[in-house]
């Protein structure tokens, strides 16, 4: 089974986050890494590979430094990587990114399953997997906490507040997984050494045959026009218990629609 | 900038490492941060740790016997192994000890001196962390003078019969196999002893104030019978265990600087956030003087470690050179730990911060695998040609 995993290189959440003058996330002046939520997708792919035959390809779209996200995935055990990298991509929104991923996946060869994480840890939009499924014409099984592949079908469980849905689709399909699905492995020493020899393709827009006008800041349907720091948390309200503390707390919670 | 990034920006030492070495360092650091660091204070306080679970993790990461070739081992460079030791000891010297005793002592003894059958039987499962090893050389009355050991192996037909005791044996109570060095009628010989052999006993050493996140044991052997195939065939005399010790010392040269770095990073963070009178502690000249001197010694120690690593990878390291590194880096690491403690004031003595834990651990680290005094004598002999051990 051939599995493609979409991964993203994001600024390290432990570090400072900054925006560039054009209101895009600064991915170059800061330490970055493979988005932690994507590690679950890589792990899910590796588990499937280990339980049978197949090959795992990781695909990323991002600046030069994003090669690191591919490398980390290869160190964990993926077989080969694709890095879509072109100055004209800078500022691409989710829809434009999904276009690039779709074209890269098509170019990378035959596939049975496309895996993605729950969301990126920087943009946290969760829309790319659905957009990608549309572009590739695949059934989408999103945000599942379990994953089984049997014969020509894929099955997963999506947990929500009120119910758990079991969703099934025929392959090829796109699946996005949550952080409940597994515990991603650390790259081992052998994995780190082996990754050096694994093939990584770097493709430009021209390689993909994508017109620069469809991506980047200018080609995106959405753009960030301004940003503001979250205001500091307001001082809490102290309830003094004069025999009616419980009632007051309940009233507060009800007023805030917590209950 | 984090203290870690600030230190590296100052020293530029990351630039001396290959990309794979940097990736290895960050992998071990991440594992330690996620899985070990949150529990270290509790393990230290309890004097207990889930050694088997950790060994399994470390096996999965490829850190056990990682510098050995074949038999499921990693085949890494000496420098890469040193870097892994440094990052492990930045978490805790006890955890680095687990790695050292497994890889540098027990596995190295089998790898260097074992029979093909012994290698096939033990090395793959030890590399995977499925089997834990320990190394019995030191005795209750014989530390720096191992030649005086009282443990005896007597030939009985094809068998060997062991009697005696070993002391300060890391991993002793959790080990599946012990490498035991014993006096025979001829020379000192090594034996591969499965710990479930009748006559083998391991008692935990209690009331330690150092390396509490590490298992230490006293081993005793009472008419312990081994088949003839249990002897390590390829070495006779003290050269055997001493060459393993040199391997472990090499890991400590790097490891001690890991402990020191963790103390210094903690002190930098603290000096930045702690207000004294009207400004941050780090804004006072006396604090900056301490921080600068410690950063300098840390840099020198790491450079010495890397130098020795590259020498070893080039095939040309001597025992005396390893002694230079062990002497300097243990001595400076404990000084750094103690100085950092002064920056944290009273907070420095609690397990909320890693400093007192490192400082206490380093008391053992500067004693085991050759005390500082023994290394001074080794270096003195190398310089003067005159042995002053006795």
From TrEMBL, chain A:
Keywords: Electron transport, Transport. The keyword Electron transport applies. GO terms for cellular component: cytosol. Gene3D superfamilies: HUPs. Its cofactor is FAD. InterPro entries: ETF_a/b_N, ETF_b, ETF_beta_N, Rossmann-like_a/b/a_fold. GO terms for molecular function: electron transfer activity. Pfam families: ETF (PF01012). Residues 22-212 form the Electron transfer flavoprotein alpha/beta-subunit N-terminal domain. Heterodimer of an alpha and a beta subunit. The electron transfer flavoprotein serves as a specific electron acceptor for other dehydrogenases. It transfers the electrons to the main respiratory chain via ETF-ubiquinone oxidoreductase (ETF dehydrogenase). This is Electron transfer flavoprotein subunit beta. It comes from Leekyejoonella antrihumi.
Automatic annotation (TrEMBL), chain B:
InterPro entries: Acyl-CoA_Oxase/DH_mid-dom, Acyl-CoA_Oxase/DH_mid-dom_sf, AcylCo_DH-like_C, AcylCo_DH/oxidase_C, AcylCoA_DH/ox_N, AcylCoA_DH/ox_N_sf, AcylCoA_DH/oxidase_NM_dom_sf, Glutaryl-CoA_DH_mitochondrial. GO terms for molecular function: fatty-acyl-CoA binding; flavin adenine dinucleotide binding; glutaryl-CoA dehydrogenase activity. Keywords: FAD, Flavoprotein, Oxidoreductase, Transit peptide. Residues 236-383 form the Acyl-CoA dehydrogenase/oxidase C-terminal domain. GO terms for biological process: fatty acid beta-oxidation using acyl-CoA dehydrogenase; fatty-acyl-CoA biosynthetic process. Transmembrane segments: none annotated. Belongs to the acyl-CoA dehydrogenase family. Residues 18-130 form the Acyl-CoA dehydrogenase/oxidase N-terminal domain. Its cofactor is FAD. Signal peptide: none annotated. It comes from the Bacteria. It comes from Leekyejoonella antrihumi. This is Acyl-CoA dehydrogenase. Residues 134-223 form the Acyl-CoA oxidase/dehydrogenase middle domain.
């Amino acid at each position: 089974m051939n599995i493609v995993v979409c991964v993203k290189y994001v600024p390290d959440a432990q570090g400072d986050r900054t925006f560039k003058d054009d209101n895009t996330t600064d991915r170059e002046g800061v330490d970055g890494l493979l988005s932690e939520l994507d590690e679950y997708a890589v792990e899910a792919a590796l588990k499937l590979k280990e339980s049978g035959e197949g090959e795992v390809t990781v695909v990323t779209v991002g600046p030069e430094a994003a090669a690191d996200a591919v490398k980390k995935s290869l160190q964990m055990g993926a077989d080969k990587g694709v890095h879509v990298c072109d100055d004209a991509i800078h500022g691409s929104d989710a829809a434009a990114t999904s276009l690039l991923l779709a074209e890269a996946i098509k170019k990378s060869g035959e596939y049975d399953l496309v895996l993605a994480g729950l969301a990126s840890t920087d943009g946290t939009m969760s829309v790319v997997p659905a957009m990608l499924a549309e572009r590739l014409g695949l059934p989408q099984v999103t945000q599942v906490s379990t994953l089984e592949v049997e014969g020509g079908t894929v099955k997963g469980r999506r947990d929500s507040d009120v119910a758990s849905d079991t969703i099934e689709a025929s392959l090829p399909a796109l699946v996005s997984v949550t952080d409940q699905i597994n515990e991603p492995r650390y790259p081992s020493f052998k994995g780190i050494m082996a990754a050096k020899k694994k093939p990584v393709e770097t493709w430009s827009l021209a390689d993909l045959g994508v017109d620069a006008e469809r991506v980047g800041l200018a080609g995106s349907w959405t753009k960030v026009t301004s940003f503001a720091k979250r205001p500091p948390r307001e001082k809490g309200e102290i309830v003094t218990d004069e025999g009616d503390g419980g009632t007051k707390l309940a009233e507060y919670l009800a007023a805030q629609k917590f209950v | 900038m984090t203290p870690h990034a600030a230190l590296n920006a100052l020293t530029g030492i990351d630039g001396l490492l290959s990309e794979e070495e940097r990736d290895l360092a960050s992998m071990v650091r991440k594992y330690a941060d996620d899985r070990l660091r949150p529990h270290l204070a509790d393990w230290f306080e309890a004097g207990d740790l889930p050694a088997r679970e950790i060994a399994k993790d470390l096996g999965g990461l490829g850190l056990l016997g990682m510098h050995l070739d074949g038999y499921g081992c990693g085949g890494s460079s000496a420098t890469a192994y040193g870097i892994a030791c440094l990052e492990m000891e930045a978490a805790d010297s006890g955890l680095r000890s687990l790695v050292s005793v497994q890889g540098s002592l027990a596995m190295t003894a089998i790898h260097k001196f074992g029979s093909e059958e012994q290698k096939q039987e033990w090395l793959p499962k030890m590399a995977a962390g499925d089997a834990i090893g320990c190394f019995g050389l030191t005795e209750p009355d014989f530390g720096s003078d191992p030649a005086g050991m009282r443990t005896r192996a007597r030939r009985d037909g094809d068998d060997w019969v062991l009697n005696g005791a070993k002391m300060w044996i890391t991993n002793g109570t959790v080990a599946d196999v012990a490498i035991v060095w014993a006096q025979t009628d001829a020379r000192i010989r090594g034996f591969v002893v499965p710990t479930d052999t009748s006559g083998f006993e391991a008692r935990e050493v209690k009331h330690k104030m150092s390396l509490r996140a590490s298992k230490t044991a006293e081993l005793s052997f009472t008419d312990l019978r081994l088949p003839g195939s249990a002897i390590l065939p390829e070495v006779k005399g003290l050269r055997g265990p001493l060459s393993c010790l040199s391997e472990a010392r090499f890991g400590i040269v790097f490891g001690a600087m890991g402990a020191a770095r963790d103390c210094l990073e903690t002190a930098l963070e603290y000096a930045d956030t702690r207000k004294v009178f009207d400004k941050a502690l780090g804004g006072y000249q006396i604090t900056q003087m301490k921080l600068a001197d410690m950063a300098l010694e840390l840099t020198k120690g790491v450079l010495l470690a890397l130098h020795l690593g590259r020498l070893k990878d080039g095939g040309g390291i001597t025992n005396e050179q390893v002694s230079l590194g062990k002497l300097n880096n243990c001595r400076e690491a404990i000084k750094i730990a103690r100085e950092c403690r002064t920056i944290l004031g009273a907070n420095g003595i609690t397990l909320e911060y890693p400093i007192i834990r490192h400082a206490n651990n380093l008391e053992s680290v500067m004693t085991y695998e050759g005390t500082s005094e023994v290394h001074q004598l080794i270096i003195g002999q190398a310089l003067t040609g005159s042995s002053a051990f006795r």
